[in-house]
Amino acid sequence: MSKQPLTIAIIGRPNVGKSTLFNRLVGKRLALVDDTPGVTRDRRMGVGKLADLRFDIIDTAGLEEGDSTSLAGRMRLQTEAALGGAHMVLFMIDARAGITPLDRHFASWLRVQKIPVILVANKAEGTRGTEGAYEAYALGLGDPVALSAEHAEGLGDLYSAIDETARLIGVDPRAVEQHTASDTDDAAEDLVEGDLDFEFEDDEADDDVIAFTEERPLRLAVIGRPNAGKSTLINYLVGEERLITGPEAGLTRDSISVDWDYGDIPVRLFDTAGLRRRSRVIEKLEKLSVADTLRAVRFAEIVVLMIDAERGVDKQDIKIASLVVEEGRALVIALNKWDQVEDRLAAQRGVNDILTRSLPQLKGVTTVPVSALTGQGIERLMPAVIDAYELWNSRIRTSEFNRWLAAVTESHPPPAVQGRATRMRYGAQIKARPPTFTIFTNHPAGVPDSYMRYLENEMRRDFGLAGVPLRLYLRASKNPYVDGRRTQKQRLTEKNNRRGK
User: Fold this and answer.
1) Model confidence, pTM
2) Domain span at residue 411?
């Protein structure tokens, strides 16, 4: 029996519960779930577990009829692509709704495909659901598996169906080792595709050299306003139509990860939903998409902000960039649709001026003019990403940092507090990713923000940290007249008491 990992695709018409079953099998809420039909548009992968069975599971968009150029048609092409890499299919219907003409149409299509099909009647709880499950026999796809993905009912029957089908096709669903980029297990902190609830940890921050592996790839999120070209960029990088693209704004709804190799560096790309102004986000589904995008930013190490060069930089772009800075992620700005810009010099200067005025903490951030559609300039994007990553991991020796601190404070001393001089005594870098420093001073609460910005600007200039988020914290230095137990006055009082004074 083959030891290759079993791959299963879940397909069916919209709103039958495919993403709910996907989340149930991977054991995490990776895919967005809502009552609105057609929430899922791109295919999402994860590692499913069902008792002792292990398999790769693919969540797909709802099957709908439509021209290949329409949105429904492009979603169907993504589903067909998922079938091409799967060993078996879970064809899901809604048992409560009964068999629909669309179910019959795609059941007929599946019967001529050279892939085993397990018919799943979801939402089969209750009398109404049971009747719908019996009705599914009419599709001619064998015995239906009646279950409720939401309430975890009927998973035992699904286990038996998957196990039996896997044996028939000669694939071992109990293979100990699953050679997939999205694999994980309960004992390890490996990453599952789309697992944006992973708590970001900085275990590698103290390493001199960060080694990228399939288990720990470079995590790169692509964010921006709707219709900025995020999905188009990722498709160009990976060399295939992995994500749905088109002229419609807001095609991407949940964050989808795609594994890709840049030379010998494994990269996990995250495509995200477009971020509109908060006042325009009204629907519940869009709010869920925005929350998913924000988790992707926290999960990533490097963020590429896509800006439509034709439209220029607006307040929403600045807010998105500020979000990246607040999360402490390295940032690279991609000016997309550069091939359609007439006065490129003016456009470049305009972007740089706005960023410098609005985000002084990102002064010197790298901007790369690209065309995601034609590929123009994209060869310069990943080198800029790698450079930003290296700066993000920068470490400065304590002795070097303190020599610098003494020089800048002597050149421009901090303001006095209530007539008493403020002294920056010493400091050190406490972590990287992003570079974070602690400075010990006698008046930490009295140092104004303007002086802290001065220190940041000097650090960027002197240590070459342009465009990287910095963290500077002030702490009170220890009073040399305190030994941890008694002050000098207390010791003098005790001495006088011993002398009988």
Assistant:
1) 0.64
2) 398-476
